[in-house]
Each structure stands twice: as structure tokens, then as C-alpha cells.
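Action item from last week, closing it out:
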Amino acid sequence: MRTFALLLVLTLSLPHLAAQDSMRRSVTVTAADGIHLAGDFYSSGKPGQGLLIFHQCSRDRVIWERIVTALARSGRHVLVLSPRGIGDSQGAQWDYDGNLNHALDYWRKNWSADAESAYQWLIAQPGVQQDNVVAAGAGCGAFLALLTAERHYPAVRSTVFFSDFDDDSTRKFLASAPRLAILSAVSEQDPMSFTAAKEIHQISHNAANRLLTYPEQAHGFRLMENHPELESTFMEWLEARRGAR
């Protein structure tokens, strides 16, 4: 843990060095219907935990590079994936029509199979511990992370959400998954995600759960940009959970 803390300080305090020494490798994940999904894979090449990150629909996945590089240096294998129709992933584009239920239905119907393809791609990589995978995401990606946990619990027993989303099915799952630990970060001025985060943490009672709330308007990855200390909180929480059973 002390070694990890030192690595964390060095990586996050020297962003120019992290950028020069990136471990990022662009990859393509083929969905069940043949659509090509774009992703970035980070790996130290050593056996370790898998981490699947679904990035925010309205942002570019390269924003994760600095923090994910540090996570890979600590011995993890990390895949950051763009959902179909987002960024340089193939497929029909999705536009939010202002109705949350429509969005949740769309993500579950059209993107859950892509999340599964990404999960299977990740655990097939050399050195990835198939029984110890973390699912994380921001915004729409948080819902995909929750869908991945729903399908693969208890192999996925740690999840991280930056601006949560849930639905009836995932709430039922959470009630039956006591070993699933959840770290959530959400704005109190983001009503849909704030409501979902409160629901999730009312249902889930794992002792490792953490719900972090912030007073200003911010969604998804913007929370880490506004609160740089959230990066270390995220990484330290993952480290504490690395060997959890």
C-alpha cells in the first residue's frame, strides 16, 4: 500500500511525464453484430486485476489517460471503451431526447451487448484475473458498468460510478448482491444522477460503499476535473478493494 501511494503521488503530480510515458494502446472490440467498438488498453504486462471503464458519452475517452496509466502501472489491465455511435466507435449515433427512461431503455437494449463484448475482450487478455474485475463509468458509462456487474457478479464485485444511473432491473440486482462494493461520486445539482445514487446506496449496504456528493453542477468526469482529490480517492479505494472477496 505504501508503494502504491508513492506511485500515485509521482504519477498524478507529474502529468507531463505520465503523458510522455503513456501505456495506451488503441484497440478494436468487435461487437456481437460485427460493429467495431473503439477502445484504449493499458497494461503493465503482469498478472493482475482487470478494470473496465465505459467513458462518458459527451467526452473523449483520452481524458482518462493520466489516471488509467497510473492504475496500469500499479499492476492492473485497463480497457476504456467508447459505446457504439460515440467517438470513433461504429454504429448508429444516440441523441438524448430529454427522457431518462428512453435513455435507460436505449442503453440497455442497444449497448448492453457491447458492454458484454468489452468484458469478454478484457478477461481474454493475458494476465487478467478473470474472477476479480472492476467495472467503472461516467454518465451513461456508469449505467453500462452497473449492467456489467449485474451480469457478472461476483466476478465483478467492485464498481465505480461518476454520476449514477439505475433502473428497476438493476435495483433488484443490487438487493441480491451484498458482496458488491460501490463508490459513487455525484453532484447534488444533477437531479437524475443524484436520485439514482441515493437509491443505489439505500439498497446496497456493503461496508466498503462510499457516496461522495458535491454541491456544484457537474456531471461525470467533470467531477474529477473540479475536484482533483477525487482521482486519488478513486485510486486508493480501488487499491483497498484489490484483494476483496
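Closing note: Strands lie at 24-30, 36-43, 48-54, 77-81, 128-138, 156-162, 181-187, 210-214.
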